[in-house]
Design goal:
Layout: H1 7-19, E1 32-36, E2 44-48, H2 63-76, H3 80-94
Antiparallel strand pairs: 1-2
């Protein structure tokens, strides 16, 4: 009976194959832009071209509020992002 290959050895072999430079260079499609995250060797994150020039906002909410927001998004058939943009527009209208 032959010995099964080591998982660590298999992972090292796969990593070595990925580290080899590709034969042809790849460029991202024009509708997608790349944004490097971190330093050399780390993954790249992609974002839609429709978000070009936009800023992200992070808000910490209680788990109950998050659950209510998710439920509202499902019930309304809209995304959480869309609901939050509407809420921001209402806030700006209120304070204008």
């Amino acid at each position: 009976m032959s010995k099964r290959p080591s998982l660590a050895d298999t992972m090292k072999a796969v990593a070595a194959q990925k580290a080899a430079p590709p034969a042809a260079t790849f460029s991202a499609p024009p509708e997608r832009q790349t944004s490097a995250v971190g330093g050399e060797g780390e993954g790249r994150r992609y974002f839609a071209a429709t978000r070009e020039g936009m800023k992200r906002i992070t808000v910490a909410v209680a788990p109950e509020e998050h659950k209510k927001l998710k439920r509202l998004a499902v019930d309304a058939g809209r995304s959480i992002e869309d609901l939050m943009r509407e809420a921001l527009a209402d806030l700006f209208a209120k304070h204008s």
